[in-house]
Every structure is written in structure tokens, then in C-alpha cells.
Specification:
Blueprint: E1 3-8, H1 16-29, E2 34-38, H2 46-50, H3 58-64, H4 68-71, E3 73-74, E4 80-82, H5 96-105, E5 115-119, H6 126-132, E6 137-142, H7 146-161, E7 167-175, H8 178-193, E8 199-207, H9 210-218, H10 229-244
Parallel strand pairs: 1-5, 1-6, 2-4, 2-5, 6-7, 7-8
Antiparallel strand pairs: 3-4
Bound molecules: adenosine-5'-diphosphate and magnesium ion.
């Protein structure tokens, strides 16, 4: 049975898409069949990082009712990719029912998917929360800045209190080393556990790296580069921790009809 993983953050610009794309590719390098869905409509840019130019997007599923099979493309390393398009202002405020339909219409990819990775919009909007509560595993991307702490806190508060999500894996991006990532995580966890009954686990840090930036400029994901051992190791560590992470088992509309 396929599982699903969402990459979320409170704040934008923290590296959510970078992590979604490279995590998907790392899991695929580790031998899993991976599909990646760019559900960050409006700011959809995973296709740019993957270096592909999709013919069809989620917009065609939402607006024209096209089946997922007509929209899904093959990306690097054989991963399957569902694009969110770009600048789709008219689908920014997708109604809950349409999102539920979209989540259900992904089911056919289960045949060739071990794990679905979903890049979801920043913030604690209805849209983000619908996707966050539709997956088995929820990953929060954090950076060591007060604004990121505040926004990640708000996201977890809403996810935990309003959507009954208990388990969160935290990736700390743009760090100097693993020790400082752990420190940032500890500080964040202390702030959160005081107030909520949420289970946060540290999934690892991703180094702040010029190579990551260059890979984005080159439209060639960092984990496919030859000379990026440190970055690749970081993504492998994160991938292994996410494989081990606890699943959320609440009721409601879920990917692959798990409800
Ligand atoms: N580990 C990193 N090291 C250096 N720069 C990074 C790293 N991760 C992300 N960035 C930079 O941050 C920018 C925003 O990342 P992106 O993944 O688009 O964030 P989000 O999806 O959260 O908005 C990237 O264009 C890149 O320049
Ligand atoms: Mg993004």
C-alpha cells in the first residue's frame, strides 16, 4: 500500500520545495517508487527545480476533470510528477470539496507509487491543512529565525488543535552543521511542547550551501549532482528518519483512501 508525505512550513521561502524535490529523488535513489505532487498552487515551482516543462498540471484536473494519468509526467530518476502549474491565480482559493475530489482522484497512481511526496502551500490556510491532514507523515521545514519559529508554531497549533494531527517530523534547513540543526530543533520543541500534545521528532538538518543555490539556478536537483556529498548525506539522513517516522491516523479524507 502506498504512503504519503507532505512537506509543510509556516513561513514561505524556507526551502520547502527544495526539500520536497530532493527528498523525493533521494527516496527514489534508495529504491522506492516515488511520485511528487506540487500542491502549492499559485507558487508552484517544483517543475522548475526538476528542470521539466509539464504539458498539463493540476489545473487541468481541477478545471477540466482530466484524470491523473493524463497529467502525470516522468521526471529525473524516473520519479512521477504532478505539476501545480504556475501563476494559477484562479485556482488559489480552491473549495474544500474540490480538494477532496483532487485527493481522491490521485488514487490510480497507487499502482506505481510506494510513496507520494506532496509540496503544500506555506501558512495555515484551509488548503494547506486539507493536504496536511490527508497524508500519513507530515514534515515541517524550519529555519533558525524567529519568523520561521512563529509561523511553524502557528501551523502546528492549527494542525494539532483543529485537525487532530499528532506527529510531526521537523527538518531544519540552512544550517551550519548537524549540531546547530539539533539545537534549533530543541529550542523549537521546547516552545511547542509546553502548549500542545504534539509529538515532534528531529529528522535532520540540511546545510546552508552555495551548491544548493546553484543547483536551483541550473534546474538540476542537488542530489543528482556528483560533487555534493555533504548535501546528499544530509538528504539521506532525513529520508531515513522520515521512513521511520510515526504515521498520523486521524479520520477524514486521505490520500489513497485511507480513512
Ligand atoms: N539548504 C539551502 N542552502 C542555501 N540556500 C537554500 C537552501 N534551501 C533553500 N535555499 C534558498 O532558498 C530559496 C527558497 O527555497 P524554496 O525551496 O523555493 O522555498 P519555499 O518552497 O519554502 O518557498 C531557494 O531559491 C534557495 O536559493
Ligand atoms: Mg515552494
Amino acid at each position: 500500500m502506498s504512503n504519503s508525505i507532505a512537506i509543510a512550513s509556516g513561513k514561505g521561502g524556507v526551502g520547502k520545495t527544495t526539500i520536497a524535490v530532493n527528498l523525493a529523488l533521494t527516496l527514489s535513489q534508495m529504491g522506492s517508487k516515488i511520485s511528487l505532487m506540487d500542491a502549492d498552487f499559485g507558487l508552484a515551482n517544483a517543475h522548475i527545480m526538476l528542470g521539466i516543462n509539464p504539458k498539463r498540471t493540476i489545473r487541468d484536473m481541477l478545471k477540466k476533470g482530466l484524470p491523473v494519468e493524463d497529467v502525470i509526467e516522468t521526471g529525473p530518476n524516473g520519479i512521477k510528477f504532478i505539476s501545480g502549474g504556475s501563476g494559477l491565480i484562479d485556482i488559489l482559493n480552491v473549495e474544500k470539496n474540490s480538494m477532496f475530489q483532487l485527493i481522491n482522484s490521485i488514487n490510480p497512481i497507487e499502482k506505481y507509487t510506494d510513496s507520494l511526496v506532496v509540496d503544500i502551500p506555506a501558512g495555515a490556510s484551509d488548503q494547506s491543512m486539507t493536504f496536511a491532514s490527508a497524508v500519513d507523515k507530515l514534515v515541517i521545514v524550519l529555519v533558525g529565525e524567529p519568523t520561521s519559529f512563529m509561523d511553524a508554531y502557528t501551523f502546528i497549533k492549527s494542525a494539532n488543535l483543529e485537525y487532530d494531527i499528532q506527529n510531526f517530523s521537523v527538518v531544519v534547513n540552512m544550517v551550519d552543521n548537524e549540531k546547530s540543526a539539533q539545537k534549533i530543533f530543541d529550542k523549537f520543541q521546547n516552545a511547542v511542547i509546553k502548549f500542545f500534545d504534539a509529538n515532534l521528532t528531529f529528522a535532520g538538518g540540511i546545510p546552508r550551501s552555495k551548491k544548493v543555490q546553484n543547483a536551483i539556478l541550473k534546474k538540476a536537483p542537488i542530489v543528482l549532482e556528483k560533487e555534493a556529498e555533504l548535501e546528499k548525506l544530509a538528504f539521506q539522513r532525513v529520508a531515513k528518519n522520515i521512513i521511520k517516522a510515526r504515521e498520523n491516523k486521524h479520520n477524514g479524507i486521505r490520500f489513497f483512501s485511507k480513512s
